[in-house]
Amino acid sequence: MDRPPAESTILVTRESGGIAHVTINRPKSLNSLTKSMITDLARAFKGLDSDDSVNVIVLSGRGRAFCSGVDLTAADDVFKGDVKNVETDAVAQMELCRKPIIGAIAGFAVTAGFEIALACDILIAAKGARFIDTHARFGIFPSWGLSQKLSRIIGPNKAREVSLSAVPLSAEQAEKWGLVNHVVDESELLKKAHEVAQAIANNNHDLVLRYKSVINDGWKLNLGQALQMEKERAHDYYDGMTTEQFKKMQEFIASRSSRPASKL
């Protein structure tokens, strides 16, 4: 595994099996985000998206928090900057990333940290982890999707309670509401994230990318439109395959059928 300089506040490492790790590395400040960290996080995801050796990404925070939000001592710099610049927007780059992103949440995911968690495709949380939306408490208008995404995942009534009250949402409750996929002991968090990542990396990489895309794009449509989109993409996919590709697909299926399935 390659390792970046330890002083970097955004660490990126890659494994030989196609799994990359992004770590928010400012533990003494509970991984609060400065403008430069947001830019570096955006560049990290853009770089991993274009890296053909990477199949899946695990995002975590070092220390006692996943991410405690924007560093409010630098809030003016963050909120009044060029917020429409997609190149330096961490959440925008996560949403544009074709590779599946697994969020490994320990400690707190607060406000901007909560929004970064919502930009992940799969969430695994440690027991005792908390998701907190403090936009209403501190007079910060949401701009990374929390006001829209959370209600679509857990329902508008529950989302209103979480956001308007600013009361912490536990990992255990988040799992019951469908926000979190798995809750595990903190000592097992990265192991579980790696286990899920490996199960994804073992599959057909091209189809994983296409499948993530059709799920995420369909989520923005009504069911009828989404089903039609699926049919059109399936037609384009199969119509573009050669006889040799169909043969390789059949051979791959035959070779996989004798292996035990991955367990989540």
Quote the beta fraction.
5-15%
Largest sheet: 6 strands, mixed
What is the number of helical segments per DSSP (H or I, 4+ residues)? 12
Number of strands: 9
Assembly type = single chain
Q: Top keywords for this entry?
A:
264 residues, alpha/beta, six-stranded mixed beta sheet, 9 strands, three-stranded mixed beta sheet
Summarize the structure.
The chain is an alpha/beta fold and 264 residues long. It has 12 helices and 9 strands.
Descriptive account of the structure:
The chain starts with 9 loop residues before the first strand and ends in an 8-residue tail after the last helix. The strands form two sheets. A six-stranded mixed beta sheet has the order 1-2-3-4-6-9, with helices on both faces. A three-stranded mixed beta sheet has the order 5-7-8. It is 46% helix and 14% strand. Strand 1 (10-14) and strand 2 (19-24) form a beta hairpin. The protein contains twelve helices and nine strands. The mean pLDDT is 91. By secondary structure, the protein is α/β, with parallel strands linked by helices.
